[in-house]
Description:
Structural class: alpha/beta
Strand content: 15-25%
Amino acid sequence: xxxxxAKTPVAAADAPALEAYGIEVGFGEKTIIKNLDVVxxxxxxxxxxxxxxxxxxxxxxxxxxLIPRRAGSVSFFGETVDTLDEEGCRIMNQRIxxxxxxxxxxxxxxxxxxxxxxxxxxxxxxxxxMDELADLKIALVGLPLDACNKYPSELSGxxxxxxxxxxxxxxDPDLVFLDEPTAGLDPIGAGAFDELVVELRDVLGLTVYMVxxxxxxxxxxxxxxxxxxxxxxxVDGSIDELRSFDHPWVQDYFNGPRGRMAADxxxxx
Length: 269
């Protein structure tokens, strides 16, 4: 069952899922990001990586409007966010899902109730319909149905990630943001989550913007990767393009021991 929610008309049917130009973000006298541009086509799994403090999560939150921008514009599906009225923003928000790094599930709500939270906020649905939709999302992300009545404290780390992803998918979004989705997971759990992301992109036609430091995810999941540094995107492209990019941090990250190991693992798959 898919939710019958109105979609904001786009300026062009082939407009990118995300366009951000001239982004500047800072706190006090410190500038974190300056004059940064990023474009994510529809259907792409786009990875963002960078050293500690380079602003990966700051950029994500600025794009989503969770923290203010000093400058720059953000557009989703051809619609500039700053020009949308309240109703336009409400409808656009229904097209976007977010998975926070720690899951950010409400501890006092069950998994089913967590998934239903966006539905209560944005859709006028009966309880029986919300129950059915929540159970479908639970199955979609590979959780057992008996997880629906469990609380976050009763879930493993991997189950929390999947439950949070189910909530991010509650309103059938077109674009999903993932902040360190495999952080804290063991290698098997992280690999399974990576496979889930690709499967959901292929089945649902999602566009995925993923902040991650997981080299295995970068090698096996992402279509394109951007490297943040020096307040901007240093380079973006495929793994092969990044591995040949002449920059000390990029070389150490992708061609160092762990990078070579991830490359070998990806080649064996």
